[in-house]
Structure formats: structure tokens, C-alpha cells
């Protein structure tokens, strides 16, 4: 049975202890969709220990006929194209990565096509992934 990816989400996340979210935006040339400043009180009542800057796709369904699970990753890389080659310019207190997750009705592998891998490499970040199996399918 062919795998059917139901949806995926992807985020470019930068964590920093000293560099402000505004400075991250200026360095990368990309506006975040979400910022959590250091010192913010979280829903849990705990205090945020570092700045969180992110561009988030939200959960996106795959395009009809596309079973790769990469729709959100493609969206993210398109949105962050202006940051290509600039992640290395972030100060040393910054840690940047892509988080990508996808849900499927099959345990088959998820594959990052070569052109997307090249875009991630050009951006200069690692991808951290997670997948879930929806056994109700």
C-alpha cells in the first residue's frame, strides 16, 4: 500500500541567550512568525530562559499527488530564502535548526529530495525530524 502523508509542519528556530530577536531578524533578513522573549512567563508558570525566534509553517497538508511529506519543508525554505548563507553570521550564543515533522498512514521512510537537501545545506542548518504513524488510516 503506498504511503499517504497526511500533513507536516516545519520551523526554522533560533535560540539565543544574549542576542535579541530583533537582531536575529536583522541578521537573517527574515521576519519571524513567533518570538518568545527571554524572561517571559510561560503557561506552565516557568520563566523562559532564552530567546526563541522562529518561522513556523503551521500544519500543512501535502499537495494532491505528493506523498513525500515535504510540503511544509518546501514552504519554510521558500519563506527563508533571504536567510541563505546568513545563519553563519549569527553571534555564537545563537543556535539555529530546522524542526520538521510529518504524519503518515504508513511506516515507510520519509525522503528529503536532493533539491531540498541542497536548499537546507545552503541555509546552513541541520534538520531535526519526527514522524508519526496514524494507525486509524
- Strand fraction equals 25-35%
What is the β-strand count? 6
Alpha-carbon Rg, integer: 16 Å
Taken in chain order, the helices and strands follow as EHEEEHEHE
User: What is the helix content?
Assistant: 10-25%
* Large-scale geometry: globular
Q: Give the overall average pLDDT.
A: 86
Low-pLDDT ranges: none
Major β-sheet annotation: 6 strands, mixed
Structure description:
This protein has helices at residues 21-28, 71-79, 114-123, and strands at residues 5-16, 34-36, 51-56, 60-61, 94-104, 126-133. The protein has 137 residues and is an alpha+beta fold. The N and C termini lie close together (12 Å). Strands 1, 2, 3, 4, 5 and 6 form a six-stranded mixed beta sheet that branches. 20% of the residues lie in helices and 31% in strands.
Task: List the keywords.
6 strands; 3 helices; single chain; 137 residues
Explain briefly what this protein structure is:
This protein is α+β, with helices and mostly antiparallel strands. The chain is built from three helices and six strands.
Topology of helices and strands:
Layout lengths: L4 E12 L4 H8 L5 E3 L14 E6 L3 E2 L9 H9 L14 E11 L9 H10 L2 E8 L4
Parallel strand pairs: 5-6
Antiparallel strand pairs: 1-3, 1-4, 1-5, 2-3
